[in-house]
Amino acid sequence: MLTVLLVGLSGALLLNGYTHHLFGSAPDGSVTATGPHDGVPAAIADGGPVIDAGTGAPRAVRPKARTIAITFDDGPDPAWTPQVLDLLRAQKVKATFFVVGTEVAAHPELTRRIVAEGHQIGIHTFTHTNLSSAPAWRQGLELRQSQLILAGATGVSTPLLRPPYSSEPDALTDADWASIKRARDAGYLTVLTTQDSEDWRRPGTTQVIANSMPKGTSGQILLMHDAGGDRSQTVAALQKLIPVLKARGYRFATVSDAVGMAQPVHPASAIEHGRGMALIGAMRLSDGILTVLTWLLYAAGALSVLRAVATVVAARRHARERYWSWGDPVTEPVSVIVPAYNESAGIEASVRSLVASDHPVEVIVVDDGSTDGTADLVESLAIPGVRVIRQANAGKPAALNTGLQASSHELVVMVDGDTVFEPDAVRMLVQPFADPAVGAVSGNAKVGNRGGLLGRWQHIEYVVGFNLDRRLFDLAECMPTVPGAVGGFRRGALERIGGLSDVTLAEDTDLTMALCRDGWRVVYEERARAWTEAPASLGALWRQRYRWCYGTLQAMWKHRGAWIQRGQAGKLGRRGLTYLMLFQVLLPLLAPAVDVFAIYGLVFLNPLRVGLVWAGFLALQLGMGLYAFRLDGEKAGPLWSLPLQQFVYRQLMYLVVIQSVFTALAGSRLRWQRMERYGSLGVPPTAPSTEGFP
């Protein structure tokens, strides 16, 4: 579905960019043909303005004496074409309109009026393109698409072609002649001019009339315009010109009547009419898509700036208050629960880091039916204060509930089996429990395996994304998630809400939201640092984040009632859930609009301006990164990879959100997927550090 949407969106934008930004907007007479003209046959250069460049001897036909064919180029235009048509009807004059395909698509009703009122119609290409300088593929495209659109709008087809930027036959160059012959191969007769009113210059009504007056009694094909700018001088000139010429014995006719040709315009086939209507619909759809995309771009930009301002302002305030005193020091022992399923690669480092804590702990490892000898390994360590409980595989929430029932203390810390704690992490994590209103504490999870681009990108995300958000949630008292890697809880609070639930894939988010709705405050203690093993491949990262995102959506839906509650639950709903909806669901869904529009801009708009906008977004993120790294005591070196992150990692993350939302809307049930462990983390150093592990 995503692929189909992407292909459809790309096609719509390509069509929009071609029709709007490759349009030949220069006036017809402002482009002078240059180049050799030796290849133009003398019969054409010295002949009439209606040219048949067939396979036999090329022919050119002149209008009859005292006959004037008024031709209008560049329309239809909603402002000027109706005025021209009204004037011609009042004067009982028929003219020939050479219409531009994109303008026909925009104003099909005007084109139908031209045909209905008996005027002749010809094409002026799809996007007013200079056919003599366009490659052959574009010449064919311009003719085919303009003919299709005409058929779709009016139900007729025409072989008459007025090439943009053409003039009189004696001005043809070899390139012009080559394009005329290609057009003839496609079934078109080329109609040039004998007299140019030069109304495109806007020289004044009097001068337009003077330029349009025939010299002698020869027939003329007069060039005028009903679009392309202010045509008030054209309308005013016609009001005076037509009566004067009628009084002098001139008659007005369509191009075919002027040269004695049978009516060339004929009804289009049903297939052509249908295809033309489809093309017009596609063009309108592409215009609508670009409009929507533009507004989405504005929305994404506004949300990005809003999030940056909100998180930085909150982080500054949080930084000033982060070492507040929660009350008397908390010294009571803590039960640490480690759920483990096939964690043999990293369980030893995790357990040893916990027993090395400078706070009294009991460690309970709950083996959830491992098949890799995880329980045997922990038991073989024979570390005092470490217990192993074995159970049949029932999932992480069940393992945590088992550990909770076996715990001996009121304060409980939950730790993933791939996480190692710094020596003071447990002590720091439980200090907020001096406040009896605190039911849970989020610690500071850090990426331990930072080697390579993927590790650096996740490190940046943890520091800039997760930790800045947690500071804001802490101040707003709406923390939605205590990470499974490092979180502290009151046992009584957990028992009051019935322990951990297995109805969502994000049991940590579900648990945290349930505590908030039960009236407990959840806080962030950045000094409680633990090091976790991040996914080492894109596939593993995709599976982890897909599970996280889908589980978060499940938890948000489960606790949607918090939006209308009061107290701590209301803060979670109206602050926390709203923040998640705006910045972790809606903003990633809008992110593709930024990238797609950037590509569109590079191809069809000003690449420099697009580059500056992109650089502005990157500078905003870099500024946030530098500030977040400084707050966390991290070296800013990994931020050099931030520009690269925008081309791979960010797209992966928003695709995860898109797929999660589609999965949720489809009502599918996503299974829990365990991340592959590599055992890349060792026992942490004896002193707190932000440099990772040796």
Description:
The protein is of the alpha/beta class. Helices cover 50% and strands 14% of the residues. It is built from 23 helices and 20 strands. The strands form four sheets. It has an eight-stranded mixed beta sheet with strand order 15-14-13-16-19-18-20-17, with helices on both faces. Strands 3, 4, 5, 9, 10 and 11 form a six-stranded parallel beta sheet that branches. A four-stranded mixed beta sheet has the order 2-1-8-7, with helices on one face. β14 (361-368), α13 (374-381) and β15 form a beta-alpha-beta unit. α1 (2-21) packs across α11, α8 packs across α9 and α18 packs parallel to α19 (538-558). The two termini are 45 Å apart. Mean pLDDT is 90; it is low at 685-694.
Keywords:
694 residues; alpha/beta; eight-stranded mixed sheet; six-stranded parallel sheet; elongated; transmembrane; transferase; Glyco_hydro/deAcase_b/a-brl; Glycosyltransferase
Concise structural overview:
The chain is an alpha/beta fold and 694 residues long. 50% of the residues lie in helices and 14% in strands. Mean pLDDT is 90; it is low at 685-694.
Q: Which helices and strands appear, and what pairs or packs with what?
A:
Blueprint (H helix, E strand, L loop, with lengths): L1 H20 L20 H4 L4 E3 L6 E3 L5 E7 L7 H11 L4 E4 L1 H6 L1 H9 L3 E4 L12 H19 L1 E2 L2 E2 L12 H12 L3 E3 L3 E2 L8 H8 L7 E6 L6 H16 L3 E2 L2 H5 L6 E2 L2 H52 L12 E7 L6 H9 L5 E8 L5 H8 L4 E6 L4 H11 L4 E4 L4 E3 L3 H6 L7 E10 L4 H25 L10 E4 H6 L10 H11 L3 E12 L5 H21 L8 H38 L2 H25 L10 H4 L3 H18 L28
Parallel strand pairs: 3-4, 3-10, 3-11, 4-5, 7-8, 9-10, 13-14, 13-16, 14-15, 18-20
Antiparallel strand pairs: 1-2, 1-8, 6-12, 16-19, 17-20, 18-19
Helix pairs in contact: 1-11, 1-20, 3-9, 6-11, 8-9, 11-16, 11-20, 11-21, 16-21, 18-19, 19-23, 20-21, 20-23
